[in-house]
Amino acid sequence: MTNNQEASPLLSPVEGLAGAIGHTPLIRLRRASEATGCTILGKAEFMQPGGSVKDRAGLGIIEDAERRGHLIPGEAGIVVEGTAGNTGIGLTLVANARGYKAIIVVPRTQSREKLDFLRMIGADLRLIDPAPLSSPGHYVHVSRRIAEELAAEGKRALWANQFGNLANGAVHEATTGPEIWAQTGGKLDAFTCACGTGGTLVGVAKALKARHPGIKIALADPMGSCLYSWVKTGTLHAEGNSITEGIGQGSAVPGNLEVGRAFIDDAIQVTDPEALEQVFDLQIHEGISIGGSAGVNVAAAIKLARQMGPGHTIATILCDGGARYQSKLFNPEFLRERGLPVPPWLA
């Protein structure tokens, strides 16, 4: 920076972890933009302190609990959550910074890298067998019971409940959406992203629709999820399967998504090969390393751009980084076993 340049506010010191969450860059994705004649932008949430968009949810949920008196800064408290991994990471880091403990319930099928990271940052990690949402053994129900048992013992315990806790969507309405709007100078035609809890999609959609009612909002959905069908037909119908983690729902609509249905205009379905094509393409041609859910988002943005035609600006979320899935997305043996493409440089 030259002497006559003013310092950006983003270069000023921030207060602790909470101050470092948010304000991620919005990156123009060169090859996707050139292929469609549109401007396709990716919000670089992999640059969050905990490595994913779920840092925002972790902060929003815990701050909301503090405002409500469910957690009290400076006093012992326990945050309990069932998660595919990233929300658990965000919650654990924020809990550490606030002086709380975190108990995180995760299906043992999630990527080894996420599980190792949770252990590394001090989460009390509870691994369980995967189970459908209708089963009492599903990680959501297991985490709720743990929180209830702790409360019955007289401990101050918060069940984060990311799927139904509207503080999840609210933090994206307050931060992610306005950031995207400001970063595009208000020149934005559409937004798309996948849904795990619905918090990011609905929160961003509310913020953008408030500023531009005509903006198009599209849910991106992997195969094996019923949410594409829900948006398109109002019915819960799923076909196929996917290796993506933390997005899509097989048999139910999360509370955050259900309350925001009016803000969603369309849905786009993405296969694993389509998502992996974007993961590998961005990695080798643009130096941007993303995970599978971000691959779904970029593939959906490209499909949406082709539907809308050249000249439009479309934003999406780069949810987390590829290193979190090295043992899966970048493992030739794992990919070949499932008949999926292998990146040429690893073949």
Write up what this structure looks like.
With 347 residues, the protein is of the alpha/beta class. 41% of the residues lie in helices and 15% in strands. The chain has 13 helices and ten strands. It has helices at 16-20, 30-36, 54-67, 86-98, 112-120, 139-152, 167-183, 199-211, 227-233, 255-258, 272-286, 292-308, 332-337; strands at 26-28, 39-44, 78-82, 101-107, 124-128, 157-159, 190-194, 216-222, 266-270, 313-318. The strands form two sheets. The protein has a six-stranded mixed sheet with strand order 1-2-10-7-8-9, sandwiched between helices. Helix 4 links the parallel strand 3 (78-82) and strand 4.
Can you describe this structure in just a few lines?
With about 350 residues, the chain is of the alpha/beta class. The chain is built from 13 helices and ten strands.
In round numbers, the mean pLDDT is: 94
Low-confidence stretches: 1-7
User: What's the SSE pattern?
Assistant: HEHEHEHEHEHEHEHEHHEHHEH
Number of strands: 10
The gross shape turns out to be: globular
Strand order of the largest sheet: 1-2-10-7-8-9
Structural class: alpha/beta
**Number of separate helices:** 13
Largest sheet: 6 strands, mixed
Distance between the termini: 43 Å
Round the Cα radius of gyration to an integer and report it.
Answer: 20 Å
Percent of residues in beta strands: 5-15%
Helix content: 40-55%
Characteristics of this structure?
alpha/beta, globular, six-stranded mixed sheet, 347 residues, four-stranded parallel sheet, 15% strand, disordered N terminus
